[in-house]
Amino acid sequence: MNLFGRDFLKLLDYTPEEILYLIDLAAELKDKKKKGILTDVLKGKNIALIFEKTSTRTRCAFEVAAHDLGMGSTYLNPSDSQIGKKESIADTARVLAGMFDGIEYRGFEQEKVETIAKYSKVPVWNGLTNEFHPTQMLADALTIKEHFGKLEGIHLVYMGDARYNTGNSLMVLCAKLGMHFTAVSNKKYFPSEELVNICQDIASKTGAVIDFSEDPYEGTKGADVIYTDIWVSMGEPDEVWEERIKDLEPYRVTMDIMNNAGDSCVFMHCLPSFHDLGTGIGIDIKNKYGLNEMEVTDEVFESDRSIVFEEAENRMHTIKAVMYATLKEA
Questions:
Q1: Annotation says 315 is catalytic
Q2: Active site residue 82
Q3: Residue 46 CB partners (closer than 8 Å, separation 6+)
Q4: Mean pLDDT, to the nearest integer, of 14-36?
Q5: Percent of the chain at pLDDT exceeding 90
Q6: Would you tell me how many other CB atoms lie within 10 Å of the CB of residue 82?
Q7: Which of 59, 270, 275, 317 is labelled catalytic?
Q8: C-alpha distances in Å from residue 245, one per residue of 13, 81, 184, 230, 238
C-alpha cells in the first residue's frame, strides 16, 4: 500500500484497509526495534514539530521515532513559533515546507492543521487538535490487537466527556474497523449529532455498532475495553472544573465498573491521568473539591487490568509507522 506524500489529519480521511496497514506496519517496526534491527531508512530528512499544546508522550514519540528512522527533528513551542501571531498559518506552512520534509502540529482547532496541510507541499501530521487525535487512535488499536489478537467485534466503552478529540476519534476508529463503540456519560457529553451520523453511516458498511448510555452499569456490561480521559482539557478555564466534576463523577472508572464489564475487560487511558495526588493539579483538585482521584480510581489505574503504559509506548511505534509510510517512497 502506497501512502507516500499523504497527510495524516484524521481517521475519517483513511479507509479501513489503510488504517489496518498502518497498525500492522507499526507492529512490524516495533518488533524490529525490540530485536535491535535498525530502520534508519529516512536519513537526510528533517521534520518540524509545532506544539501549541505541550505534551510528554506526543513530543517524545515523534522525536524518538524520527531518530530511529534516521531523521532530524526541530521542536517549536508556543514561544518559539510565530504561527498565527506575527505570521499567518498559511505563510508558516509554506516556510516550514521549504525547509522540512514533514510537519507535525499539536494544538487547538482542527482548522489550523487542515490549513497547514492545505499550504504545505510536504506531509502534515496531526499530533492532537480539539476535535481529533488520530495518532493516539493507532496506538490504541495496536494495543487492543496485541492484547486480544483482533480488533473486529471488540466492544470499547468510553466513559466521560466524549465530545472532543479522544471520544470523537475512538468513535471514528470503531466505526472504521468494525468494532462496537459505546459512549457512557451524561447525554450532554455525547459526541455531536453530525459526527454520530457520519460514523453510523460508516458503521452500516463495516458492521460496527455505535451506541450510547447514561447508565454506567448498563453501558459497560460485557465491555472488552473501558477507556477514559481527563475531564477537563488543556486550555479550558478553571470555572469549568466544578460543573464537569459534578456531571461526570458518576462516570468515574472504578473496580466495580471493571468487574461489571467482566473478568477479561482491560482499562485504557491516553494520559495524563488524575488517579492520585502525585501531580500539582491533583493536589489542587483535592484542596478545592476534596477528591483524591478523578476520572479513574488509583485501584484500577495500578491494577493488572490496566494497559495504559503499553498503550503509551505504542504511541512511538505507531507515529513511526505514519512517518515511515508517508515519507518513504515506494
A1: yes
A2: no
A3: 71, 72, 73, 74, 99, 100, 101
A4: 98
A5: 89
A6: 13
A7: 270
A8: 34, 34, 15, 10, 12
53-to-11, 109, 128, 233, 239 alpha-carbon distances in Å:
21, 11, 9, 11, 20
The one catalytic residue in 6, 155, 229, 317 is 229
- Whether the per-residue pLDDT at 315 is higher than 90: the answer is yes
- pLDDT over threshold 80, residue 206: yes
Nearest to 246 by CA among 282, 213, 288: 288
3-class secondary-structure state, position 125 = strand
pLDDT tens for each residue of 233-248 = 756 777 888 899 999 9
Q: How far apart are CA 51 and CA 71, in angstroms?
A: 18
pLDDT at 26: 98
Active site residue 199: no
- Alpha-carbon distance of 216 to 257, in angstroms, equals 7
Query: Which of 86-90, 155-159, 263-267 comes out lowest in average pLDDT?
Result: 86-90
**Residue 144 banded pLDDT, cuts 50, 70, 90:** very high
Identity of the residue numbered 241: W
Residue 37 has pLDDT above 80, yes or no: yes
Q: Catalytic annotation on 31?
A: no
Catalytically annotated residue among 6, 57, 106, 275? 106
Please answer whether residues 253 and 159 qualify as being in contact, where contact means their C-beta atoms are separated by less than 8 angstroms: yes
Per residue in 293-311, pLDDT (tens digit) is 999 999 999 999 999 999 9
C-alpha grid cell, residue 72: 532530524
Catalytic residue among 6, 7, 68, 136: 136
CA angle 54, 172, 233 (to 5 degrees): 30
At 181, give phi and psi (nearest 5°). Answer: -110, 130
In angstroms, the CA 196 to CA 286 distance is 35
Q: Which residue in the list 163, 275, 315, 317 is annotated as catalytic?
A: 315
